[in-house]
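User: Just a sanity check before I run the rest of the batch. Below are the structure tokens for the first item. I only need the designed sequence back.
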């Protein structure tokens, strides 16, 4: 096992504390100068369209409530620093010891940016939405943002053209 290669791990948090834990981890990384050991911290969210009082609005929901993802080089010092961060209940793994995610799990959870060369959709292409509130809707690609992993698609909804932003 290559110990100098950062890997993704899962941290369990108190319910509703995901954003606070993410902020606390960023502060801890900054204060202890651990940018070379802890590379990334994420709380994956998904946009959902919610209808309330006849009005539609987009809200962000956490994909994995009570979990924060961290890309780091594991050692006992880092484990101690992360587990003693306010709001963290521990790592996901046997006996509270972190178990790194596999490459397949990282890809499936959308933690890593997809390389744009592997992406075979261009502006003007027709696409079908495969998951979420707009599943099975057909739309036309209006723009692609590789760094944000988003695609802007114009979908025909209720007889009107509606631009929506979707995840890769």
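Assistant: Here's the designed sequence for the first item:
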């Amino acid at each position: 096992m290559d110990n100098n290669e950062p890997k993704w791990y899962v941290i369990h948090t108190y319910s509703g504390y995901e954003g606070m834990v993410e902020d606390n981890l960023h502060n801890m990384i900054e204060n202890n100068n651990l940018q070379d050991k802890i590379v990334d911290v994420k709380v994956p969210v998904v946009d959902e369209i919610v209808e309330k009082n006849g009005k539609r609005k987009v809200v962000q929901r956490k994909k994995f409530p009570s979990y924060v993802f961290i890309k780091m080089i594991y050692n006992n010092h880092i484990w101690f620093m992360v587990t003693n961060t306010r709001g963290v209940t521990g790592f996901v793994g046997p006996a509270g010891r972190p178990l790194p995610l596999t490459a397949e799990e990282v890809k499936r959870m959308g933690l890593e940016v997809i390389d744009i060369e592997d992406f075979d959709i261009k502006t003007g292409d027709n696409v079908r939405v495969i998951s979420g509130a707009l599943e099975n809707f057909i739309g036309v690609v209006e723009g692609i943002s590789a760094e944000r992993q988003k695609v802007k698609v114009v979908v025909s909804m209720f007889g009107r053209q509606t631009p929506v932003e979707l995840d890769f």
